[in-house]
């Protein structure tokens, strides 16, 4: 078998479609052990009969130059089960083991086929190594041969970041923990980068900043004399020789230096900040509550006294205890008072009406058209008319001792039971019973249940084992009672009642899977 360049690129990658199972191997290989298949980064397993998507089988394609060789022209891998998911990355590579398990015979005929196979494997393995080399970190052909990219020893490179020095040599001098630290403050680094010009300005004017900081007390003093300075400006006509002398004093080097400091851009900026609307607003707010501030200052002893009486902490105080002291224990969330010998919890009053076990009303309770639920027992009371709803959560039973009556009122029995009563349309009208189809019968009926079946248009009752028609007799047009009608199909299994015979008008059909049981000694007659 020849090894052609077009068939000797030992790596191929596919982007799978949903449910795709078959993927082509476009290169030559020698055995199933030479093939590795990955789904993403997961190495899949070879199995001649794959049962899951993590297993694959291989079907080889013979080479035209060596038809006896199964994998000479590549082949196909087939995933098991439902195959790959959409957009899975399936990678197929050839990785031939470097070994030679047998020698050519030293005597006798020479096996040319075996020689060709060994040579083919050598060229194929060289292609494997070339493919791996192309995917490795390596120097360009144009790089200086003096550059070193050999990794430092394990002990030297442990927990380090791989970088390259000015000569292009691989080095590991930066600790990985430092990189992690910088990554953790990346937003701070970005912020500093965004104000780089401001940082530069501060560094350039650091001496002025230090000067202002050193003279801040003088600056504060001048600021406190602003009204006096304004007064001097208002009496310029009164400037005398003495005043000029005083000005000369102000012109001394120290004073001039101080004034120069006050004139710096940083100080002026600070004064401008003090003159902002927000700051002035804060000063005005203080002005508005100065009476309160004065009151607190005048009563500071009472404030301090309250601070000693009421305390907050995680454990009860053991010192400075006086009767009547208050303490909030944040551990058990209890407000306590000191009774002169120990701390006692303060019990809160009722927080809800439900906590009052014996409530009484001094007048009518107006529910404002809302429901009153979970009412419990109502004794000898009148429920007046209204638009709300009187909800009952349990059955109502009228006994022989009941003295109250319900008259001219409608009681809805939907989803509720009224024991011992039959609902009627009028005193001379009809009793109301449940109406429904055969499919709407009770799932778990009890003996004696009675209803009207709208499917069969007849009354029926449950005898403890089955539903059966009640009454009805013959029917006919107008008031005739001539015809007795029965079903023609038995759709539900049935057993004749004990010691009873049965009569049916035929023909009759028994549905598939349905049985009619006639006990011994009894008869079922079909006419």
Lateral arrangement of strands in the main beta sheet? 1-8-3-4
Total helical elements: 14
Helix content: 25-40%
Largest sheet: 4 strands, antiparallel
How many domains, in number, for the residues?
5
- Rg estimate, integer Å: 52 Å
Summing up helix and strand content along with how strands pair, one would put the structural category as: alpha/beta
Shape type: flat
Beta content comes to 15-25%
Mean pLDDT: 81
Unreliable stretches (pLDDT < 50, length at least 5) are none
Short description:
With 527 residues, the chain is α/β, with parallel strands linked by helices. The protein folds into 5 domains: 5-101 and 110-134; 215-278, no CATH class; 297-345, no CATH class; 370-376 and 386-472, no CATH class; 486-527, no CATH class.
Description:
The chain has helices spanning 112-134, 154-157, 176-184, 186-194, 196-204, 206-214, 216-224, 226-234, 241-250, 253-262, 265-274, 277-288, 290-298, 300-309; strands spanning 11-15, 22-25, 35-39, 42-43, 45-46, 55-60, 75-79, 89-94, 160-164, 170-175, 310-313, 326-329, 334-338, 343-345, 396-397, 418-419, 435-436, 450-453, 458-462, 467-469, 489-490, 494-495, 502-504, 509-510, 516-517, 524-526. It is of the alpha/beta class and 527 residues long. It is flat, with a radius of gyration of 52 Å. A 4-stranded antiparallel beta sheet has the order 1-8-3-4, with no helix packed on it. A 4-stranded mixed beta sheet has the order 2-7-6-5, with no helix packed on it. A 4-stranded mixed beta sheet has the order 11-12-13-14. The model has no long low-confidence stretch (mean pLDDT 81). It folds into 5 domains: 5-101 and 110-134; 215-278, no CATH class; 297-345, no CATH class; 370-376 and 386-472, no CATH class; 486-527, no CATH class. The chain contains 14 helices and 26 strands.
